[in-house]
Every structure is written in structure tokens, then in C-alpha cells.
Amino acid sequence: MSEILRIENLHKSFGDLEVLKGIDLAVQAGETVVLLGSSGSGKSTMLRCLNFMETPTEGKIHLNGELIGTERGGRMRYREAELCALRARIGMVFQHFNLFPHMTVLENVMEGQVIVLGRGKPEAQDKAMAQLDRVGLAEKAAEYPARLSGGQKQRVAIARALAMDPEVMLFDEVTSALDPELVGEVLKTIRQLAEDGMTMLCVTHELGFAYHVANRVLFLHEGTILEQGEPQSILKAPATDRMSEFLEGHSLFKLPD
Amino acid sequence: MAHNWDFATILQNWPVLWVGIKGTVFIFVITAILGLGGGLIVGIARYSKSPFVSWPARAFVEVFRNTPVLVQIIWFYYAFPILTGIETDPFLAAVLGISLNTMAFSAEIYRAGIQSINRAQWEAGKAIGMNYNQTLRRIILPVAVKRVLPALTNRGIEVFKMSTLASVVGYVETLNQAKLISDLNFNPIESYTAVAVIFFVVLYPVVQGTYVLERMLRKGD
Ligand SMILES: Nc1ncnc2c1ncn2[C@@H]1O[C@H](COP(=O)(O)OP(=O)(O)O)[C@@H](O)[C@H]1O
Ligand SMILES: [Mg+2]
What we know:
By secondary structure, chain A is of the alpha/beta class. Chain A has helices at 43-50, 80-89, 105-115, 121-134, 150-162, 180-195, 207-213, 231-234, 241-248, and strands at residues 3-14, 17-28, 32-36, 58-63, 66-67, 70-72, 75-77, 90-93, 168-172, 200-203, 216-221, 224-229.
């Protein structure tokens, strides 16, 4: 197995508020890592630092062995063009889908390919249709997002990210804004991706998903990784009181015995 | 104060008026394109995070929004050539005054439109690797401009009416020609009434059209 993502000593502050306090993590190709943690623990901030939606205050991020940015005067410096190129290599899916309302489903999935990757329209269209097919929405290609259900919107957002051929996918609570009956179809799509060998980091409160799909579960607390391990052990027998309390708060999910 | 209306002299002088109408349409088209097009650029600059870009844009907007267009036109005609040595003519002075004023007002309209777009749209563009300009052009502006289309149309209507101000420096447009007819035929009441009627006949259907447009846009949202 090869290492796709390596994070060293990641810190992020917003003004005086230190949100991430030194995160170290290595993610292997094909791994599905689930991030758990209570609200405000820094899960979103961590994901957003990985694709530089937020610039880390300190620390280094390596993608496929390359260090992102250059070190000068003991600090990391980033050029905007470099960060754009990096973001194109990392897919991100948001809680609120954020589809482009003035474009059809197909155009949504083609946009980044044409504008960012410079693919020709026919190639971009073929790739877009392939990804829409993968998420089960090929027949909605000509629709506008406003006419889709939440679950369908989220699957289009996944297809839009996948069409860029990302090396890693980041999912930030992508089912939290959905009606309960629509959660399943999105989780199924992500699970299929995991089985296809996609490398993924998922923030979620769906413990069942973590239990069945994750290779590794991280528990984030106040900006540090408090514990981590295989889901089957860590979800059943957490080592810290913090995580026990967190899991008790999610009693909706019954772990298999 | 009974007035004997006599529009016969107006109709006889229709070719004179027609020259003016053509002048009005010409300056309207030029100032609408420069004003509403340039306003987009100033509006984008005004929105910029860099103070070196947003500050000059803001200064521009405040100067031209808070001075009367009539004064600007007169200033560009009489003062500007003396101060800069650059010759102007009535057309150029009027185009400068009306266009710059329209740029200032429409810049604020565009900026409000851009600001009304959910920040999540910027994030979505950024997340697939788009840079600032790509996201602005492809994701933000199409929706923002559509949203402010009614306000822009209102600006366009204002521009059409402002074209009469060009008469103050002697640019040949409808009001100026009406004055000519009135001076020659001693019929100011009919002449200026004719001008008002012409503007009303052109603008009323346009304004009705904007109501339809507004309704259509509201439905599309
Ligand atoms: N852009 C920001 N500016 C200031 N504070 C922020 C910003 N983003 C997140 N925070 C703060 O960082 C902390 C962690 O937020 P977040 O990473 O969203 O947590 P989580 O996703 O685990 O709920 C919170 O206290 C939040 O208010
Ligand atoms: Mg969050």
C-alpha cells in the first residue's frame, strides 16, 4: 500500500482561537478514514485545510509524496496557482451540496473538467455521463438542480467531484442536511466508492457507516486526535471517557454484538 | 387660459424632430453600453478584497454618484478642455457625463448582486480548482447579473431620459430640436409637449416589459 496523504503537525488558528492543535496523520491509498467528534471539535477545519480551503497556520501536507508549498524562513508559503492545481486533485463534497443553480446536472459535472482541467467538451461530456451513471443519475443529466431531491443533489455533487479524477475525496457531513429517508442512497454511493478503492476522509455522524465502511476511525477532540483505531474495536470499546460520552450521545445507532 | 392646440407645425417640422430622435437613440446606445458595461468592471473592482483595487473604485463611485450629471456635462464641455488641453465637443462631453454617472450607479447594482450570492458558491468553485476569476466569471456573475436585471433595466430607462441633458451643450437630440422648432415657430407648448409624448410612447412599453421580466425572474428563482 502506498501513502497518498501525509499530514504533519497541522495547526490552524482563526485569530486567537486555535482550532487545530497539531494533527499528524498518514492515509494509505484506498483507505476510508472516518472522522468523528462533537460539534466545534475542528473536523470541518481539518478537512478544509487538506485541500487548502483554509490555509494551515503551521504544519506540512504531502499529497502523493509531494510537499505542498515551499518552506522559506521556517514557514510554509503557498502560491495561489499551486493551490488551485492542488484543489483540482482533491474532491470535496459539502453538507449543502452547493451545486451551480444556473447549470444543468450535466453542465455541473462538466464545468471543472472544461474550465480547470482544459478537457475538450466531448471528452468532458463522456466523463460526466460516466460519473452520473456511477451515482445512478444519468437520466437526470438535462435537469436543473432545483428540480432534484436532496439525495439526488448530493449524488450529483459527488459526481462533480469524481469527474475531476481526484486522488482523495473529502466528505463533510454530506448527509446531515438530508431528510432521513434520503440518507441511505447517498451513503450507498459513498460505500460503493470505498469498495472501488477510492481514498476518502469522511466526517459523519452516521456511526453505522463508520462501523461498516471505515478502515479507520479518528476521534477528534478540541483540535487533536484523541484516539484512533479500527471501527470494530474503537466504536465498541473506546479508550477515553470523552469518546464514550460522544458515542452515548449517538444512541440511535445500535452496534452489532 | 385656454390654449388653441396646434400640432400642424410640429408635423410639418417632423424631419427636424426626426434628426433629434436619431441623436437621442445614438447617444443612448453609446452611454448605455459604456455605462452599464463599465459599471460591471467598477462593480467587480469595488468588490475586490484588495484595497488597491476597491478603494479607487469606491472613490470613483462616490464622486460620480454625488455630483449632478448636468454639472458633469457642463464641466466636461467648458472646464475639462482648459484644464487638460484635450478638446471636447458636445457629444463627447455628454457621453462622458452620462456614462460615468451610469457606471457609478450600476457599479453599486452589480456589487449588490455579487454580494447577494451565497458564499458557498465561491467555495464550490474553489473546491474544484477554479481560481478567483474563473469562479467569478463562470459561477457568480451569471446568477448575480440575472438577479439584478430589473435594476439594470431601470438604470437603462434613466439613461434614456438623461440623454436630454446633452442639449445643454448643444448636442443635437430630441429636446434640442424641439427648442429649435419652438424658436422658429413660436410654439413652445406644442414643441415641448411633443418631446414629452415621444419619450412616453417609447418608454411606457419598455417599463411594462420590465414588469414582465421581473415576474419571470421571480418565477425562475
Ligand atoms: N472561518 C472561521 N473563522 C473563525 N472561526 C472559525 C472559522 N471556521 C471555524 N471556526 C471555529 O472553529 C471551531 C471548529 O469549527 P469546525 O471545524 O467547523 O468544527 P466541526 O466541523 O467539528 O463542528 C469552531 O469553534 C468554529 O467556530
Ligand atoms: Mg463541521
